[in-house]
Design brief:
143 residues; mainly alpha
Length: 143
């Protein structure tokens, strides 16, 4: 990736930092929440696909987690409408449209997806894992 950027004239300087500094609040020198980056590579863990990568105008630091600082009021309105829709097919379609719109403006690129192996003891059924996090819904478990 570095070689490709250099080839098109982009100066690349990398800096590794501890996770505690990466996600620290802006007033504590945080990289993401302080906006101290041009490009950032980090792991995103979200609790649902519908809420993944939601760059809402009102969620920019220090009020939230919109570290990309993208703000598109029409996107916010579509997400709010989708969140208020209880029909999964309709709300899902609206969320996909909203993500498609915002993806065209400023890229957030998924570089890798982890392929995890989860084990449980014999007899456990209903283990439902979320696609963007290491957690599961304990309410789905039965034995």
């Amino acid at each position: 990736m570095r070689a490709n950027w250099i080839a098109v004239g982009v100066e690349v300087t990398t800096r590794r930092c501890p996770l505690s500094l990466m996600v620290a609040p802006a007033e504590q020198g945080g990289i993401l929440f302080g906006g101290k980056f041009d490009v950032a590579f980090y792991r995103v863990s979200e609790q649902s696909a519908a809420k993944a990568a939601r760059p809402l105008c009102g969620r920019m630091p220090p009020k939230g987690t919109n570290v990309s600082r993208r703000c598109v009021p029409a996107y916010d309105a579509l997400v709010a409408k989708a969140d208020a829709t209880y029909d999964p097919a309709k709300s899902g379609a609206m969320h996909r449209e909203a993500q498609g719109r915002i993806a065209k403006l400023v890229p957030s690129i998924v570089l890798t997806l982890r392929n995890e192996l989860y084990l449980s003891r014999e007899g456990v059924v209903g283990l439902t894992l979320y696609p963007f996090t290491d957690f599961y819904d304990p309410m789905t478990l039965a034995s």
